[in-house]
Amino acid sequence: INLMEAHFDRDFSRVRRSGLGCENAGEADDAQQVASHYNSLSDRHRSLTSGSDILHVRNLHNFIKAVLIGQHMQRGWSVLDLACGKGGDMLKFKNGGCMQYVGVDIAMMSVRDAISRYNGRSGRASMPFAATFIAADFCDEALGEAIPPQMHFHLVSCQFAVHYAFSSEARALAMLRNVSCRLLPGGFFVGSMPDARVLVRRLREAPELEFGNSCYRVVFNEAHASKRFPAGDPFGIAYRFTMTEAVDDCQEFLVPLPVLCKLAEQFDLALEYAHNFTDFFCEQCGGHRMRVAEGGRLMRD
Protein backbone atom coordinates (compact mmCIF):
# COMPACT_ATOMS: atom_id res chain seq x y z
CA ILE A 1 0.00 0.00 0.00
CA ASN A 2 1.27 3.45 -0.84
CA LEU A 3 -0.21 6.84 0.07
CA MET A 4 1.18 9.72 -1.95
CA GLU A 5 0.39 12.38 0.62
CA ALA A 6 3.38 14.59 -0.17
CA HIS A 7 2.05 15.13 -3.68
CA PHE A 8 -1.30 16.15 -2.22
CA ASP A 9 0.30 18.63 0.17
CA ARG A 10 2.25 20.20 -2.67
CA ASP A 11 -0.78 20.49 -4.94
CA PHE A 12 -3.10 21.54 -2.13
CA SER A 13 -1.06 24.72 -1.76
CA ARG A 14 -1.41 25.23 -5.53
CA VAL A 15 -5.18 25.14 -5.14
CA ARG A 16 -5.06 28.17 -2.90
CA ARG A 17 -2.82 30.04 -5.33
CA SER A 18 -4.01 29.13 -8.80
CA GLY A 19 -5.97 25.90 -8.79
CA LEU A 20 -5.57 22.23 -9.58
CA GLY A 21 -6.13 21.96 -13.30
CA CYS A 22 -7.96 25.30 -13.20
CA GLU A 23 -7.56 28.33 -15.38
CA ASN A 24 -8.53 30.84 -12.70
CA ALA A 25 -9.10 31.27 -9.00
CA GLY A 26 -12.86 30.75 -9.36
CA GLU A 27 -12.38 27.24 -10.69
CA ALA A 28 -9.84 26.56 -7.94
CA ASP A 29 -12.45 27.61 -5.39
CA ASP A 30 -14.95 25.17 -6.93
CA ALA A 31 -12.48 22.29 -6.56
CA GLN A 32 -11.55 23.29 -3.04
CA GLN A 33 -15.20 23.53 -1.99
CA VAL A 34 -15.69 19.93 -3.08
CA ALA A 35 -12.58 18.84 -1.16
CA SER A 36 -13.66 20.71 1.97
CA HIS A 37 -17.17 19.29 1.77
CA TYR A 38 -16.08 15.66 1.57
CA ASN A 39 -13.32 16.15 4.13
CA SER A 40 -16.01 17.24 6.58
CA LEU A 41 -18.10 14.07 6.19
CA SER A 42 -17.67 11.14 8.54
CA ASP A 43 -17.57 7.58 7.22
CA ARG A 44 -21.36 7.41 7.34
CA HIS A 45 -21.79 4.02 5.73
CA ARG A 46 -20.88 2.42 9.06
CA SER A 47 -23.87 3.96 10.81
CA LEU A 48 -26.53 3.33 8.14
CA THR A 49 -29.20 0.95 9.42
CA SER A 50 -32.52 -0.39 8.22
CA GLY A 51 -34.04 2.83 9.58
CA SER A 52 -31.96 5.07 7.32
CA ASP A 53 -33.93 7.35 5.02
CA ILE A 54 -31.58 6.65 2.12
CA LEU A 55 -30.70 2.99 2.69
CA HIS A 56 -32.78 1.87 -0.29
CA VAL A 57 -31.31 4.57 -2.53
CA ARG A 58 -27.79 3.62 -1.49
CA ASN A 59 -28.52 -0.06 -2.11
CA LEU A 60 -29.90 0.78 -5.55
CA HIS A 61 -26.80 2.78 -6.44
CA ASN A 62 -24.51 0.02 -5.20
CA PHE A 63 -26.42 -2.56 -7.22
CA ILE A 64 -26.10 -0.50 -10.39
CA LYS A 65 -22.39 0.15 -9.85
CA ALA A 66 -21.76 -3.52 -9.09
CA VAL A 67 -23.47 -4.58 -12.32
CA LEU A 68 -21.66 -1.94 -14.40
CA ILE A 69 -18.27 -2.84 -12.96
CA GLY A 70 -18.98 -6.55 -13.27
CA GLN A 71 -19.90 -6.17 -16.94
CA HIS A 72 -16.63 -4.39 -17.75
CA MET A 73 -14.18 -6.21 -15.48
CA GLN A 74 -12.09 -9.33 -15.97
CA ARG A 75 -9.98 -11.26 -13.49
CA GLY A 76 -6.40 -10.06 -13.28
CA TRP A 77 -7.22 -6.55 -14.45
CA SER A 78 -5.84 -3.29 -13.09
CA VAL A 79 -8.16 -0.47 -12.00
CA LEU A 80 -7.83 3.30 -11.72
CA ASP A 81 -10.61 4.56 -9.43
CA LEU A 82 -11.06 8.31 -9.90
CA ALA A 83 -12.92 10.08 -7.08
CA CYS A 84 -12.62 6.87 -5.07
CA GLY A 85 -13.99 8.54 -1.95
CA LYS A 86 -13.81 6.28 1.09
CA GLY A 87 -13.15 3.22 -1.04
CA GLY A 88 -16.72 1.99 -1.18
CA ASP A 89 -16.25 0.32 -4.57
CA MET A 90 -13.14 -1.67 -3.68
CA LEU A 91 -15.21 -4.74 -2.78
CA LYS A 92 -16.77 -4.62 -6.26
CA PHE A 93 -13.31 -4.57 -7.83
CA LYS A 94 -12.21 -7.39 -5.53
CA ASN A 95 -15.19 -9.48 -6.64
CA GLY A 96 -14.24 -8.76 -10.24
CA GLY A 97 -10.73 -10.12 -9.73
CA CYS A 98 -8.74 -6.88 -9.51
CA MET A 99 -4.97 -7.38 -9.17
CA GLN A 100 -3.72 -3.78 -9.10
CA TYR A 101 -5.66 -0.77 -7.81
CA VAL A 102 -5.02 2.97 -7.71
CA GLY A 103 -7.53 5.17 -5.90
CA VAL A 104 -7.56 8.95 -6.38
CA ASP A 105 -9.63 11.45 -4.42
CA ILE A 106 -9.41 15.16 -3.72
CA ALA A 107 -10.44 14.77 -0.05
CA MET A 108 -7.57 13.64 2.17
CA MET A 109 -9.87 12.41 4.94
CA SER A 110 -11.74 10.24 2.45
CA VAL A 111 -8.44 8.77 1.22
CA ARG A 112 -7.47 7.92 4.79
CA ASP A 113 -10.84 6.21 5.31
CA ALA A 114 -10.26 4.27 2.09
CA ILE A 115 -6.89 3.08 3.39
CA SER A 116 -8.56 1.91 6.60
CA ARG A 117 -11.10 0.00 4.55
CA TYR A 118 -8.33 -1.50 2.40
CA ASN A 119 -6.53 -2.69 5.54
CA GLY A 120 -9.65 -4.39 6.85
CA ARG A 121 -10.35 -2.24 9.86
CA SER A 122 -13.75 -2.06 11.60
CA GLY A 123 -14.33 -5.77 11.21
CA ARG A 124 -13.98 -5.89 7.43
CA ALA A 125 -11.78 -8.25 5.46
CA SER A 126 -8.70 -6.64 3.94
CA MET A 127 -8.36 -6.31 0.19
CA PRO A 128 -6.18 -8.89 -1.61
CA PHE A 129 -4.83 -6.64 -4.38
CA ALA A 130 -1.86 -4.26 -4.40
CA ALA A 131 -2.99 -0.66 -3.99
CA THR A 132 -1.81 2.92 -4.26
CA PHE A 133 -3.87 5.82 -2.88
CA ILE A 134 -3.37 9.37 -4.11
CA ALA A 135 -4.92 12.49 -2.59
CA ALA A 136 -5.32 14.77 -5.61
CA ASP A 137 -7.84 16.32 -7.97
CA PHE A 138 -8.69 13.90 -10.80
CA CYS A 139 -9.32 16.95 -13.02
CA ASP A 140 -5.73 18.12 -12.55
CA GLU A 141 -3.38 17.68 -15.50
CA ALA A 142 -0.58 17.10 -12.97
CA LEU A 143 -2.25 13.88 -11.80
CA GLY A 144 -0.10 11.98 -14.29
CA GLU A 145 2.98 12.99 -12.30
CA ALA A 146 1.60 11.30 -9.18
CA ILE A 147 0.74 7.96 -10.77
CA PRO A 148 3.82 5.79 -11.37
CA PRO A 149 4.66 6.10 -15.09
CA GLN A 150 4.69 2.35 -15.70
CA MET A 151 1.09 1.99 -14.50
CA HIS A 152 -1.66 1.62 -17.10
CA PHE A 153 -5.12 0.27 -16.51
CA HIS A 154 -7.68 -2.04 -18.05
CA LEU A 155 -10.52 -0.20 -16.32
CA VAL A 156 -10.90 3.44 -15.28
CA SER A 157 -13.89 4.09 -13.03
CA CYS A 158 -15.36 7.44 -11.97
CA GLN A 159 -18.58 6.96 -10.04
CA PHE A 160 -20.89 9.84 -9.10
CA ALA A 161 -18.18 12.40 -9.82
CA VAL A 162 -17.92 13.12 -13.57
CA HIS A 163 -20.11 16.19 -13.01
CA TYR A 164 -17.44 17.88 -10.87
CA ALA A 165 -15.26 18.09 -13.98
CA PHE A 166 -17.80 20.22 -15.83
CA SER A 167 -17.16 23.43 -13.91
CA SER A 168 -15.12 24.40 -16.98
CA GLU A 169 -14.04 23.02 -20.33
CA ALA A 170 -10.41 22.96 -19.16
CA ARG A 171 -11.24 20.69 -16.23
CA ALA A 172 -13.40 18.40 -18.35
CA LEU A 173 -10.57 18.04 -20.87
CA ALA A 174 -8.05 17.39 -18.09
CA MET A 175 -10.25 14.61 -16.69
CA LEU A 176 -10.57 12.91 -20.07
CA ARG A 177 -6.85 13.30 -20.72
CA ASN A 178 -6.10 11.61 -17.39
CA VAL A 179 -8.42 8.76 -18.38
CA SER A 180 -7.13 8.23 -21.90
CA CYS A 181 -3.41 8.48 -21.18
CA ARG A 182 -3.66 5.67 -18.60
CA LEU A 183 -6.20 3.42 -20.30
CA LEU A 184 -4.85 0.34 -22.04
CA PRO A 185 -6.01 -0.41 -25.61
CA GLY A 186 -9.31 -2.24 -25.39
CA GLY A 187 -9.91 -1.00 -21.86
CA PHE A 188 -13.03 0.67 -20.51
CA PHE A 189 -13.90 3.98 -18.88
CA VAL A 190 -17.02 3.53 -16.74
CA GLY A 191 -18.51 6.67 -15.22
CA SER A 192 -21.75 7.85 -13.66
CA MET A 193 -23.28 11.25 -13.00
CA PRO A 194 -26.69 12.90 -12.56
CA ASP A 195 -28.78 12.86 -15.74
CA ALA A 196 -28.76 16.47 -16.98
CA ARG A 197 -31.94 15.88 -19.00
CA VAL A 198 -33.86 14.84 -15.90
CA LEU A 199 -32.52 17.73 -13.84
CA VAL A 200 -33.52 20.28 -16.47
CA ARG A 201 -36.94 18.69 -16.97
CA ARG A 202 -37.69 18.73 -13.26
CA LEU A 203 -36.43 22.29 -12.95
CA ARG A 204 -38.80 23.41 -15.69
CA GLU A 205 -41.69 21.55 -14.06
CA ALA A 206 -41.01 23.20 -10.69
CA PRO A 207 -42.68 26.53 -9.86
CA GLU A 208 -39.43 27.94 -8.45
CA LEU A 209 -35.72 27.23 -8.96
CA GLU A 210 -35.64 24.18 -6.72
CA PHE A 211 -37.21 20.76 -6.42
CA GLY A 212 -36.87 17.57 -4.40
CA ASN A 213 -38.53 15.50 -1.69
CA SER A 214 -37.84 14.37 1.87
CA CYS A 215 -34.55 12.74 0.82
CA TYR A 216 -32.97 15.18 -1.62
CA ARG A 217 -33.04 18.76 -2.85
CA VAL A 218 -31.69 20.47 -5.97
CA VAL A 219 -31.42 24.27 -6.06
CA PHE A 220 -30.44 26.40 -9.06
CA ASN A 221 -29.51 30.04 -8.58
CA GLU A 222 -31.07 33.17 -10.07
CA ALA A 223 -28.63 33.11 -12.98
CA HIS A 224 -30.79 30.29 -14.36
CA ALA A 225 -34.15 31.96 -13.72
CA SER A 226 -35.07 31.58 -17.41
CA LYS A 227 -34.57 27.81 -17.06
CA ARG A 228 -32.95 27.85 -20.48
CA PHE A 229 -29.42 26.60 -21.12
CA PRO A 230 -27.84 27.66 -24.44
CA ALA A 231 -26.09 24.82 -26.24
CA GLY A 232 -23.11 27.05 -26.95
CA ASP A 233 -22.25 27.45 -23.26
CA PRO A 234 -22.43 23.96 -21.69
CA PHE A 235 -19.86 24.34 -18.90
CA GLY A 236 -20.18 25.77 -15.41
CA ILE A 237 -23.96 25.29 -15.14
CA ALA A 238 -24.07 24.96 -11.37
CA TYR A 239 -26.69 23.82 -8.90
CA ARG A 240 -26.63 22.92 -5.20
CA PHE A 241 -27.38 19.33 -4.23
CA THR A 242 -28.36 17.87 -0.87
CA MET A 243 -29.12 14.24 -0.02
CA THR A 244 -30.02 13.20 3.51
CA GLU A 245 -27.13 11.44 5.29
CA ALA A 246 -24.87 11.70 2.24
CA VAL A 247 -24.35 15.13 0.63
CA ASP A 248 -24.76 18.48 2.38
CA ASP A 249 -25.51 21.37 -0.01
CA CYS A 250 -22.63 20.67 -2.39
CA GLN A 251 -22.14 22.48 -5.70
CA GLU A 252 -22.40 20.26 -8.78
CA PHE A 253 -22.58 20.88 -12.53
CA LEU A 254 -24.78 19.73 -15.38
CA VAL A 255 -23.12 17.34 -17.84
CA PRO A 256 -24.76 17.36 -21.29
CA LEU A 257 -24.00 13.88 -22.58
CA PRO A 258 -23.46 14.95 -26.23
CA VAL A 259 -20.85 17.46 -25.07
CA LEU A 260 -19.05 14.83 -22.98
CA CYS A 261 -19.02 12.43 -25.94
CA LYS A 262 -17.68 15.08 -28.31
CA LEU A 263 -14.85 15.95 -25.92
CA ALA A 264 -14.06 12.26 -25.41
CA GLU A 265 -13.58 11.78 -29.15
CA GLN A 266 -10.55 14.07 -28.94
CA PHE A 267 -8.89 11.39 -26.81
CA ASP A 268 -9.92 8.38 -28.93
CA LEU A 269 -12.67 7.45 -26.50
CA ALA A 270 -15.92 6.27 -28.09
CA LEU A 271 -19.28 5.91 -26.35
CA GLU A 272 -20.43 2.29 -26.11
CA TYR A 273 -23.32 2.57 -23.69
CA ALA A 274 -25.29 5.30 -21.89
CA HIS A 275 -28.41 4.75 -19.82
CA ASN A 276 -30.41 6.54 -17.18
CA PHE A 277 -30.22 4.63 -13.87
CA THR A 278 -33.95 3.89 -13.86
CA ASP A 279 -33.84 2.44 -17.38
CA PHE A 280 -30.67 0.48 -16.59
CA PHE A 281 -32.20 -1.00 -13.45
CA CYS A 282 -35.35 -2.05 -15.30
CA GLU A 283 -33.25 -3.59 -18.06
CA GLN A 284 -31.22 -5.62 -15.57
CA CYS A 285 -34.36 -6.76 -13.76
CA GLY A 286 -35.96 -8.37 -16.79
CA GLY A 287 -37.87 -5.37 -18.06
CA HIS A 288 -40.11 -4.89 -15.02
CA ARG A 289 -40.99 -1.23 -14.77
CA MET A 290 -40.21 0.21 -11.35
CA ARG A 291 -41.07 3.49 -9.75
CA VAL A 292 -39.45 5.22 -6.79
CA ALA A 293 -41.86 6.10 -4.02
CA GLU A 294 -41.35 8.79 -1.38
CA GLY A 295 -38.39 7.85 0.77
CA GLY A 296 -36.57 6.10 -2.05
CA ARG A 297 -38.31 2.71 -1.89
CA LEU A 298 -38.57 0.87 -5.19
CA MET A 299 -42.08 -0.18 -6.10
CA ARG A 300 -43.12 -2.39 -9.03
CA ASP A 301 -45.89 -0.96 -11.22
UniProtKB/TrEMBL annotation:
S-adenosyl-L-methionine binds at K65, A83, D105, D137, Q159, Y164. Keywords: Methyltransferase, mRNA capping, mRNA processing, Nucleus, RNA-binding, S-adenosyl-L-methionine, Transferase. Residues 52-301 form the MRNA cap 0 methyltransferase domain. It is found in: Nucleus. The keyword DNA-binding does not apply. GO terms for molecular function: mRNA 5'-cap (guanine-N7-)-methyltransferase activity; RNA binding. PROSITE patterns: RNA_CAP0_MT (PS51562). This is mRNA (guanine-N(7))-methyltransferase. It comes from Calcidiscus leptoporus.
